[in-house]
Design brief:
Radius of gyration of chain A: 26 Å
CATH superfamily of the largest domain in chain B: MetI-like
Structural class of chain B: mainly alpha
Radius of gyration of chain B: 25 Å
CATH topology of chain A: MetI-like fold
Helix content of chain B: over 70%
Strand content of chain A: 5-15%
Number of domains of chain B: 2
Distance between the termini of chain A: 50 Å
Shape of chain B: globular
Distance between the termini of chain B: 35 Å
Number of strands of chain B: 0
CATH architecture of the largest domain in chain B: Orthogonal Bundle
Strand order of the largest sheet of chain A: 1-2-3-6
CATH class of the largest domain in chain B: Mainly Alpha
Oligomer: heterodimer
Largest sheet of chain A: 4 strands, antiparallel
Number of domains of chain A: 1
């Protein structure tokens, strides 16, 4: 074997790269350990049991200032999942409506849907979150002058008050009592994420519907199906096969984009854990590592779930 | 076909359609007149302070007064000719690239990727040739947005090509490293990458060594969008038929020559739309640097809104910012469309 042998060169090159990568990581690792010990920061996961000492605005599980950092992490994670889950539902509904409208035979409706898509997609999501939070929700009236929805739900600058199973929100003193409240940060984030992702989903839906051949529509009409029936029974089932993979991507993007909430301090994973906890403990490596691992896990599980679903929409026999 | 026929066919072809048309008209009626009234008819353009805005319409005076800050951030007023000159130089060098019949484009590209960044850096940063030094924490506004976007784009494309080639390589170790990097970056949000760049990078370095916050953010953005670019480029590589590789091998070309002269030129041309989409996404993502405390265009607007002298003009600020971002993104995407049709 000589140096001009491509196989030998490949092995040498790979060995070199591996050594380089390992050396880089070893150097970063030792530097990090040095820096941490100089700043008096203990390594490891022990800090997760320490008392957090800060309050969190909105939590799905019991949490107080005496709870641990680990508990704060859980609160943030649940808030991330909550806002992503709700936004996925809303954006899917809105996105399908806009996507179908974009293809409507009605010229005006199709144009309006087009304007919506082009406007929303070309403006940064962070700007939209700011807009909903600072320009819309912060300038809503005080609780006394709330915007009322049929007397059971109320919108004001403290948030959205919704009826719960056992009580309807009512004005008591300066604020509402009863029901449950969605804080403005949550409403702003949900609105911005849903509206933004819906524009992308609309394009996905449009591409899916267009991918079904024109002959399918004509055949359906020839069989005497109405437009609605054609859409529901012929086009959508076939379009779903094309729609699902990019739709999964949009869901993943939405979940990752929920991390922008850090900018308006909605207590989701990044803002609680990579923000407050990191600032108090200085555990940069562990905290960022855990945060990234969580998002990776969410990403992988969503794509796994969608792949399973994708298998069910695939036709049994393919020519 | 006259207007009535057209309307009958496209707007009122069936009862449902007519109802939809009327609903759409109602939406327009509710949305557009109040907006025009607010943004133009009732709005204020003249004046210098908030007292000049008293009619309840939009107060564009705020934007006008703050515009220099929105564009340059905290860059000293007397030195603003430097970024202006850098932009003028960029336009002068890049404009001929858009002329299709221009000869020797290669040299312009080489200039843009080697000499120009150095010239721009010296101009903006100063500290040499008698220019006063202006540290990067004074950079801001639209200028910073364009710097981050420009360097991000210029850096992520080559990185993406390298990663894509690595991912399709026959060498298992290279392939594994590239896949791990790409999937890691694509699986996490940019915010966490930026947090990593701002709090973890300083820990990585030996004691006493530190580097600029802007540079750290740039590296984070480049790594992140490089991973997305890699997947776009990979799509192009996969579209090149086997015959091309075999023909190149038959001609006796080695790996790098095959890639350089045969595969990449074709593959990159195929994925121009994807590359442009990534660029637009990157341009919008530059806003995220404000989360780690850099004052880009949106960051300056946000800072302007908290100025006690101008409280309560959030809507004007955001509408203006949205319009600027929209113009940039929309024109990039339209240009890509014409490129696509041409090739």
């Amino acid at each position: 074997m000589s140096l001009s042998d491509p196989r030998l060169r490949a092995i040498l090159f790979q060995a070199l790269v591996i050594v380089g990568v390992v050396a880089l990581f070893a150097m970063l690792f030792s530097n990090t350990l040095d820096n941490l010990s100089r700043r008096g920061i203990q390594t490891g996961f022990g800090f997760l049991d320490h008392q957090a000492g800060f309050a969190i605005l909105s939590s799905l599980i019991p949490y107080s200032e005496t709870s641990s950092y680990g508990r704060a992490f859980l609160v943030g994670l649940l808030n991330t999942l909550l806002v992503s889950g709700l936004a996925i539902v809303v954006s899917t509904i809105v996105g399908f409506i806009i996507g179908i409208a974009r293809l409507a035979p009605n010229w005006l409706v199709a144009r309006l849907a087009g304007v919506y898509i082009e406007t929303i997609r070309n403006v940064p999501l962070l700007l939209q979150i700011f807009f909903w939070y600072f320009a819309v929700l912060r300038s809503l009236p005080l609780p006394r002058q709330s915007i009322s929805f049929f007397g059971v739900a109320f919108l004001n600058n403290r948030g959205l008050y919704l009826p719960s199973f056992d009580s309807v929100p009512h004005l008591a003193g300066l604020n509402f009592q009863g029901g449950f409240v969605l804080i403005p940060e949550f409403v702003a984030l949900l609105a911005a994420l849903s509206i933004y992702t819906a524009a992308y989903i609309a394009e996905v839906v449009r591409a899916g519907v267009l991918s079904v051949g024109r002959g399918q529509t004509e055949a359906a009409y020839a069989l005497g199906l109405t437009r609605g029936q054609t859409l529901r029974l012929v086009i959508v089932p076939q379009a779903m096969r094309v729609i699902v993979p990019p739709l999964t991507n949009q869901y993943l993007n939405l979940t990752k984009n929920s991390s922008l909430a850090a900018a308006i301090a909605f207590p989701e994973l990044v803002s609680v854990f990579a923000g407050s906890v990191l600032n108090q403990t200085g555990q940069a490596v562990v905290v960022i590592g855990i945060t990234m691992a969580v998002y990776l896990a969410i990403s992988l599980s969503i794509s796994l779930g969608m792949n399973l679903y994708n298998r069910t929409t695939e036709p049994a026999v393919r020519a | 076909m006259n207007a009535v026929d057209w309307a009958r066919r496209n707007l009122f072809s069936s009862p449902t359609n007519a109802a939809l048309t009327i609903a759409a008209l109602w939406v327009l009626w509710v949305a557009i007149p109040p907006f025009v009234d607010w943004a133009l008819i009732n709005a204020h353009f003249q004046g210098t302070s908030r007292d000049d805005c008293d009619s309840g319409g939009a107060c564009w005076v705020f934007i006008k007064q703050r515009l220099p800050q929105f564009i340059y951030g905290l860059y000293p007023e007397s030195e603003r000719w430097r970024p202006n000159l850098a932009v003028a130089l960029l336009i002068a060098a890049a404009a001929p690239l858009f002329v299709r019949s221009m000869p020797k484009k290669r040299w312009l590209w080489i200039f843009l990727f080697t000499a120009y960044p150095l010239i721009a850096l010296v101009l903006l940063r100063g500290g040499a040739f008698g220019l006063s030094s202006i540290p990067t924490n004074q950079w801001g506004g639209l200028m910073l947005t364009l710097i981050v976007a420009g360097i991000g784009m210029a850096g992520s494309l080559p990185l993406g090509v390298v990663l894509a080639l690595g991912r399709r390589s026959d060498m298992p170790a290279i392939k594994a490293i590239c896949i791990a990097f790409i999937e890691l970056m694509r699986g996490v949000p940019l915010v966490t990458v930026l947090f990593m760049a701002s709090v973890m990078f300083p820990l990585f370095l030996p004691e006493g060594m530190n580097f600029d916050k802007l540079l750290r953010a740039l590296i984070g953005i480049m790594l992140f969008s490089g991973a997305y670019m890699a997947e776009v480029v990979r799509g192009g590589l996969q579209a090149i038929p086997r015959g091309q590789y075999e023909a190149a091998a038959a001609l006796g070309l080695g790996y790098w020559r095959t890639m350089n002269f045969v595969v990449l030129p074709q593959a990159l041309r195929i994925v121009i739309p994807g590359i442009v989409n990534s660029f637009i996404a990157l341009f919008k993502d530059t806003t995220l640097v404000l989360i780690i405390g850099l004052f880009d265009f949106l960051g300056m607007i946000q800072a302007g809104l908290t100025d006690p002298a101008w409280l309560g003009f959030a809507t004007e600020g955001y509408v203006f910012a949205a319009a600027v971002y929209w113009v940039f993104c929309f024109s990039i995407s339209r240009y890509a469309l014409t490129l696509e049709r041409r090739t």
